[in-house]
User: Fold these one by one.
Assistant:
Number 1:
Amino acid sequence: MINVRHQAELIGKTDLLRIHSLSELTGCNIWLKCEFQNPGGSIKDRAALQMVRDAMARGELKSGMTIVEGTAGNTGIGLALVAKSFGMQMMAVMPNDQAREKERVLELYGAKLMTVDPCPFSNPNHFYHRARHLAEQHKDHWWANQFENPSNFRAHYLNTGPEIWQQLSGRVDILVASAGTGGTIAGTSSYLKEQNPEVQVWLVDPDGSGLYSYLKTGEFSGHGSSMTEGIGIMRLVENFRRARVDRAVNLPDLDILTLSRHVRHKDGIVLGSSSALNVAGALCAAIQTGPGKDIVTFACDLGERSASKLYSPEYLQQRGLLDYPRDVSQLMKKYATDQWRDKIVHCAEGG
Ligand SMILES: Cc1ncc(COP(=O)(O)O)c(C=O)c1O
């Protein structure tokens, strides 16, 4: 009997795929949680569904209302499809420097889209504040607030973490993740460490984000910039605050290029930019900790959401990024150096 009532019920229960090429090279099992299998194409479907379900249970959100969210795109796409399942509308506020691919998908899902100029968080025109204002102005609008909303954490604590634990029958040595709101790393790390406090959690942070420096010095400061989207934060938000992190590493866009080409060529997986960063982080963790480990990371979305940046020769030329190491063994050598080891932040008490 077919009993799927709506698309939102297809969210989660994603596969775990072994990245053969990197597993063979490192002697570790490097596992990829295939979050692109979610119906909206990204890991953010999970947070979207949990935020909506919890708000409906509290009576804050009802069918006929409009969900508003400031988003780099993927959370908006997730909310748009969940909104349809529950008879709601979706309004996404997005900075206009994100890959156009995501704007198009949002519109295909029937979301209304407001794009704004990128600006610092302190500016009232920041997409986060604009979304909040919209909700304040309209009684039938509900602001999801993915950065501060604990349902985002719950999505991963209740689902992503348990799925990984079951899929690997508890054989998890290391979890590697980047953070946008921190929901993924916080919820998953909390669940896994409850099962086994020895699970080591690595945060991988792109250039331009302040999380690496925050974990190193207690201060948010970033250097440079990154082509990655949906990840990197310059302030402490509630979801990231709950993350239980043991190690933090900052990796440049050049590593994302080397890694994404390697995995595309050897394994046939076309990773999105945050996913390529995650896998580079997993490679770094494998090299630093030695063979025999089971290391899990996330394919948050696929390269089709990054086509106009990560896979565009014109874009890479404009950014001066064409001169990246072509061979992944160069990355492996770099990650094995003492100089590199010294850059890895050891965090106090896993969190
Ligand atoms: C492609 C992609 N990767 C990673 C993340 C980060 O996930 P989280 O917000 O759970 O930290 C996001 C968030 O929007 C994303 O869009």
Note: Residues 42-44, 72, 74-75, 178-184, 230-231, 272, 274, 300-301 surround pyridoxal-5'-phosphate (CB under 6 Å).
Number 2:
Amino acid sequence: MSFIENVKSKYTAKRMNNIKQLYMSVNNERGAIKSNSSSPEIFAVNKKTSLRSLPTMLSIGKNIEYTFKSLKNNPEFPKITASNDFINEFEDRAKSMGIKSIGYTNVIPKVIFQDKAVLYGNVIVLTKELDKNAVNNEFPGKTAIDLRIYDEFGKKTNELADYLRENGFGAHASHPAMGLVTYPTLAQHAGLGWRGKNNLLITPELGPRQKISAIFTSIENLPVKSENEHEWVADYCNTCKKCLKKCPEKAILEIESHNGPNGTKLVSELCKGCNESCTICMKNCPFNIREYTVIKSRFKRYHQEQ
Ligand code: SF4
Ligand code: SF4
């Protein structure tokens, strides 16, 4: 290992250790919602980065730290009710910052990663588009889907959390690069789409091509949807399974659920998605190739004809 690589590695380890301490600090906050025995393990990320990516990595680290350090700016007695006008203003602001879709749900412990905690039980879920050309031209070892999207999206998430605070609400942001919760499941609960067999959120707007972040908030009257209209995607996935067949690392495993081998588990040690920019299961997903509405109407028609 070269001298520079050695310094980089030591610095990164020290920074990661600081971040881990900050994560743990939320567990001690009064009223925090903590993981439980059914909570998932956090996805192991060991991204290989070039020296050129170092400034972006540092910025991501700084903004992850800010998600915790900014908690001291929460109002002492945060408001718990937001008007419809405020929710509309928030959504307009988020969309003007490049956020693609916004959903709302309540947090349950089984979406919180093991040993993690969140400050509020109400959550705003945000998505940001991944460039289609970059996804389709990506292959393991290349880094077209580089870290800048995480950095930019993390900053926007923090800005929106600050906006909530400025308006008297409590906020706890969760960075897209190192979240506190399993994002695709959280976004599914928020009605934004459905978690496909590739473990990615599939949405009508972007198929599997988005990153996700979240803001936990004191607002108790968020417009939470009671139904998820995307549930049919689970049945479609059961007839497709393309991502399982295409994954070069066999990192997607089918697992038994109460009604058969319909669920999947991503083996993080094998997956090259986070570590080496693999997008094979994303770019080969039919929802990345065709419009959601076209797939849906064909699938429904096929089943009506059977
Ligand atoms: S490739 Fe097929 S099985 Fe995999 S997530 Fe996409 S639709 Fe579902
Ligand atoms: S990102 Fe690549 S390695 Fe990981 S599950 Fe998808 S296809 Fe497999």
Note: The first helix runs from residue 3 to 27.
